[in-house]
Design a protein that fits this description.
Phosphoribosyl-aminoimidazole Synthetase, Chain A, domain 2; 14 strands; globular; 60s Ribosomal Protein L30, Chain: A; 2 domains; 346 residues; alpha+beta; 5-stranded mixed beta sheet; single chain
Length: 346
């Protein structure tokens, strides 16, 4: 048996791969309340969140960013969606021999700019140069800490129901919670695949890659957020199904309310893809207490990266999984993708 692309591409294929081969390989998987088996966006170590991720995108430079901005923002966002304030990152670079030095300089500048925007330090790293035809791989790890906004969010949530974690985790959605997405979906993946395929649409697509701590901090200061994830590999289809399965609840989504650019829809239709399965790199999907949802939505819309936020659905208890009400009035099950339909985007 050989490893396949779908084994590392998010979605059901990767979930099966991790369950079958990876999770059982380690005997010590927790240093705090959240560990490897939880498959959250990071793990807890005392009052800190620790996370790591590898980045591989083709092409290395794309409209709206490059692999350097992607690496910083992706790790910052994995920390942020657990309610922790990003503090420090490490960076490990594997570079193909023969890469133009100008590309390296651009990537490093992007990492510096993104880290300054996120208010996080890059404190250690490693560099390797190899002969293999890989262009550029980056792995970043990060640490985030508990903070006053997280405390406020959990205090507000506890006024309605007992929240079981010190951080924001995937398993705490409850019946009646509202589902919010912080902006237009699938911008990053659609941008990458349009560039690869030479697809021209009416307006230029641009990646949404961005550090989201400031937006998330603003929303947590309102309070009532019960779960958060960034819809990277597998898009919002994968995120919604993860939240549903881990929390043991059903989710109903209204397709008409999902913010999506028409050029993203056009690109998806030309390639026979579902835009709900395509990655974003600057968006968050949130579960929010019903009584707090309007205030959280307004808080998101007051920020740079949350202006297009929308309420797209709710948590229900009459079914498991995710159901979507389509634009033509029907209802269908929204399955998670087998893997990312656009490989090497993050």
């Amino acid at each position: 048996m050989k490893i396949k692309m779908e084994d590392g591409a998010g979605g059901e294929g990767m979930a099966r791969f991790l369950e079958t081969y990876v999770l059982g390989a380690f005997s010590n998987k927790k240093a705090g309340e959240i560990g490897l088996d939880d498959l959250d966006d990071g793990a807890s170590v005392g009052d800190k969140i620790f996370t790591t991720d590898g980045y591989t995108v083709k092409p290395v430079v794309f409209p709206g960013g490059d692999i350097g901005r992607l690496a910083v923002c992706g790790t910052v966002n994995d920390i942020s969606v657990m309610g922790a304030k990003p503090v420090a990152l490490s960076s490990s670079m594997i570079i193909q021999s023969g890469l133009d030095i100008e590309v390296l300089e651009q990537v490093l500048q992007s990492m510096d700019e993104a880290s300054q925007e996120a208010g996080v330090a890059i404190v250690c790293g490693d560099t390797k140069v190899v002969e293999e035809n890989i262009a550029f791989f980056i792995t970043t790890s990060g640490i985030g800490e508990a903070n006053s906004a997280l405390a406020k969010n959990i205090e507000v949530t506890n006024a309605y129901r007992k929240y079981q974690s010190r951080f924001i985790v995937d398993r705490e959605l409850g019946e009646g919670d509202v589902i919010i997405v912080s902006g237009t979906v699938a911008d990053h993946g659609a941008t990458i695949i349009s560039l690869r395929k030479g697809i021209e649409v009416e307006s230029d697509l641009i990646s949404d890659v961005a550090p989201l701590w400031g937006m998330i901090e603003t929303a947590m200061n309102v309070g009532g957020i019960t779960a958060m994830k960034d819809p990277t590999r597998g898009g919002i289809s994968n995120v919604l199904n993860e939240l549903s399965a881990k929390s043991g609840v059903g989710i109903e989504i209204d397709e008409e309310r999902i913010p999506v650019k028409r050029e993203v829809i056009a690109t998806s239709e030309m390639l026979g893809l579902n835009y709900l399965d395509i990655a974003s790199e600057g968006k968050v999907v949130m579960g929010v207490l019903k009584d707090c949802a309007d205030d959280v939505l307004n808080a998101l819309r007051s920020t740079k990266y949350g202006r297009d936020a929308e309420i797209i659905g709710r948590v229900v208890d009459d079914h498991g999984g995710v159901v979507i009400r389509t634009r033509v009035g029907g209802r269908r099950i929204l399955h998670p993708p087998l893997g990312d339909p656009v490989p090497r985007v993050c």
